[in-house]
Amino acid sequence: MKIGFIGLGTMGAHMAANLQKAGHDLIVHDMRREAADPHIAAGAAWAGTPQVAGEYGEVVFLSLPGPPEVEAVALGAVGLLSGMAPGTACFDLSTNSPTVVRRLHAAFDDQGVAFLDAPVSGGPRGAESGKLSLWIGGPEAAFNKYKPVLDAIGDQAAYIGSIGAGSVAKLVHNCGGKSVQCALAEVFTLGVKAGVPALALWEAVRQGAIGRANPFDSLTKHFLPNDYDPPDFALRLAHKDVSLALELARDVGVPMRFATLALEELTEAINRGWSERDSRVAMLLQQERAGVQIAVDPDKVAAAAANMAAERAANDN
């Protein structure tokens, strides 16, 4: 298939190379002409502008730093859309704003071109090996049509929903990861300052209940099905443990911003009369603030978890 690829940075260079290895004909563009040299040496053509890439490609992929770059490439004077023909498609592999991708989708749709957000997760190593997740939002027919091409980029290309859904999923993933990272930095500095060597501390907590569990997998037991009874770990016990951790932090002089907020949540939940429910019941407070109610059919949660476990096992093999 004739493919346009725009953005040959750390991620894009690997993804474009994998498309070439899969036998597709590429035309490539980047702000740095030299970034295209390895691809041209492997048989790709050079596009002097995004418009030229759009004129060539049956499908075009974007891998750019963020919303301003994507908009400039897509809608500029010699931009991508000015070169794309009706019936073609553009997949934005960048981590983008859902608002921006919805606006771009409307502009492309007016010209009969499908625009889909398709952010990726797996880092440079995954981009090189092809072990990437792609979260696709947009017209499902276009996803199905180009699924074999997407499979040359990553091994986990999944349709998430309407335009913007992929970007929402990526932002939830990345923001969640960085929030957990900050919280872990906080509790590990507490442990080290309280006298436990860092590696010994890591080895200990890695074998605990939380250390063994994927944080997103933990959502399947109580949070997604909205079932907090009977408890696996009662709220009153969680409140006691976080209180003790903060007491230790005061003793050794470690600031605990995230843990202090967590204790406030647990305290509010206790004040609702939820002491004997599972400690995750405190997560209902954020649902109230956000104005959403999460209650997924338990059978569907179990099926999704089983499917994901099977996919992971297959990928590991």
Descriptive overview:
By secondary structure, the chain is α/β, with parallel strands linked by helices. It has two domains: 2-169, Rossmann fold (3-Layer(aba) Sandwich), CATH 3.40.50; 213-316, N-(1-d-carboxylethyl)-l-norvaline Dehydrogenase, domain 2 (Orthogonal Bundle), CATH 1.10.1040. It is 52% helix and 12% strand. It is built from 14 helices and nine strands. It has helices at residues 10-21, 37-41, 50-56, 67-75, 98-109, 123-129, 140-150, 165-193, 198-206, 209-212, 235-252, 257-271, 283-290, 298-316, and strands at 2-6, 25-29, 45-46, 59-62, 89-92, 114-117, 120-121, 133-137, 156-161. The strands form two sheets. Strands 3-2-1-4-5-6 form a six-stranded parallel β-sheet, with helices on both faces. A three-stranded mixed β-sheet has the order 7-8-9.
CATH class of the largest domain: Alpha Beta
What is the C-alpha radius of gyration, as a whole number of Å? 24 Å
Shape from CA axes?
elongated
Strand coverage percent? 5-15%
